[in-house]
C-alpha cells in the first residue's frame, strides 16, 4: 500500500464515513488502471483490437477508450509513433466526452499539457472548427505540441499563454471551454506517487485559489450559451463542489448542467459544501472504488448571459508567389494540392485551419499543420506533414511491417536500404500509416525522423 499523508486519510475518512473510506483506501493496494484511446482521426478501433500484440477491453464511458494489459507496452509499439492512439488514464477520458465537441465548434482547452483531452477533443472536431490548446509552462507546451503533431491534428493552435492574456485576446469567443485545472492531484496518487509528496492542506487551498482565478478568465472567453467544463483529478471538495458552488454564486447567469451517471460514475456531493445545494449533485465524481479508473471530478455549465463582444480578425494567407518552392515540392511529393491559409513564421510554413483567428500577438507554439521550411531555392517538409496526411496522399511510400525490424531501424534514425528505384521525398509507413519522412537516392533512404524523437536503445 502507498504511504498516504495522515491528514489526507483523516479528511477523506471523515467525509466518506468509515465504510466507504474502507473500500476507497483498499484501492491503494491495487495497481492503477491502464488505458489508451484510439485516435479516430487516423484509425478505427478494430485495427488495434484485432492485433495479437494488444489485449484490450473497452472503457465503458468512452467509445474510443480501452484498458490494456501491462504486458502490451503500447508506448513501445510503432503505432504509438504513428499517432494511432494516445496513452491516457481511463477516468480522464470521461472529461472530453463531457465537453462533447461538435463539428465546427470553437473550443478552448485552457490547461492542456500534455494533451490527453485536447487530442480527444480534436478527434471529435474531426478537422473542422478550431481548437485552441493552451499551456502556461513552455516545456509542457512543447510536449503538448508534439502530441498534437503525432496525432495528426490540423485545426489546432497550440499557445503558451497565461489565462489572463488569452482572455484579453478572445473575449466571448468560444463555444466550448475546458478547464482541466491544475489541482492537488489526490486522484492520481496511484498513477503519480510524486503527487503524494506535494500534498498538504495548504497546497489544496493554494490550488483552489488558482482554480478560481482560472475559471474567471474562462468565463470571459465563453460565448453566450457557450459550455464550460471544469475538471480536476482530486477528491478535495474545496477544489471540486465548493469551487463550483462559489463560481455559480459569482455568476448567476451560469447554469449547472446534468452529467449522466452511468458505469459507476457518481453524483457530486452537495453535502460537502456550505450551501448543501442539491443542484451540485449534477456534477460527477469518478472514484477508484466505484469504477476501473483513477479519481476525477467533472462539472458542466452553460452561460446564459451576454458575452463581451469581440471584433473578428482572421489570419491572412501568404501570396501564391511566396509558395513557389513549396508548390514544386508538393507537385513532386503529394498526390493532391493543398488549399487553405498558408502562413509563414520566418522561413517556416504552416497551413492554418479555415477561419483561423489572427494570432500575431500571441505566443503560438504550433499553428495548424507545420508544412516545412523554406530553404534556399527549395522546400524541406516537416515531420508534422507526414503525420497529418494518410499514406494515400503521398506519391512515394516505403511500406514497413511490424514483423520486420526495419521500423525499429527507422525510429533509431538509421539509413535504410531500398530495393525499388525510389527517388526523392518518401513517406515511411508502418502497416500503411505514416511514421515520418525519408529521402530516397542511390538505393538508400536517408532518414529524416526527427532527432529529438529517435529511440535511443532497442528497448
Ligand atoms: C491537470 S493538468 C492538464 C492535463 C491535460 N488537460 C491533459 O489532459 O493532458 C493541468 C495543467 O495546468 C497547467 N497550469 C498550471 N498553472 C496554471 C495556471 N496558472 N494557469 C493555467 N494553467 C496552469 C499545468 O502546467 C498543467 O499542464
Automatic annotation (TrEMBL):
InterPro entries named among the record's database cross-references: Methyltr_RsmF_N (IPR031341), MeTrfase_RsmB-F_NOP2_cat (IPR049560), MeTrfase_RsmB-F_NOP2_dom (IPR001678), Nol1_Nop2_Fmu_2 (IPR027391), Nop2p (IPR011023), RCMT (IPR023267), RsmB/NOL1/NOP2-like_CS (IPR018314), RsmF_methylt_CI (IPR031340)
Listed PROSITE patterns: NOL1_NOP2_SUN, SAM_MT_RSMB_NOP
Record-annotated active site: 233 (nucleophile)
Key word Cytoplasm present: yes
UniProt keyword list: Cytoplasm, Methyltransferase, RNA-binding, S-adenosyl-L-methionine, Transferase
GO biological process: RNA methylation; RNA processing
Pfam families xref list: Methyltr_RsmB-F, Methyltr_RsmF_N, Methyltranf_PUA, RsmF_methylt_CI
Chain residues that bind S-adenosyl-L-methionine: 111-117, 135, 180
Keyword Ubl conjugation included in the entry's annotation: no
Residue ranges constituting the SAM-dependent MTase RsmB/NOP-type domain according to the UniProt record: 13-304
Molecular functions (GO terms): RNA binding; RNA methyltransferase activity; S-adenosylmethionine-dependent methyltransferase activity
Similarity-based family: Belongs to the class I-like SAM-binding methyltransferase superfamily. RsmB/NOP family.
Protein name, as recorded: SAM-dependent methyltransferase
Lineage per the UniProt record: Bacteria, Bacillati, Bacillota, Bacilli, Bacillales
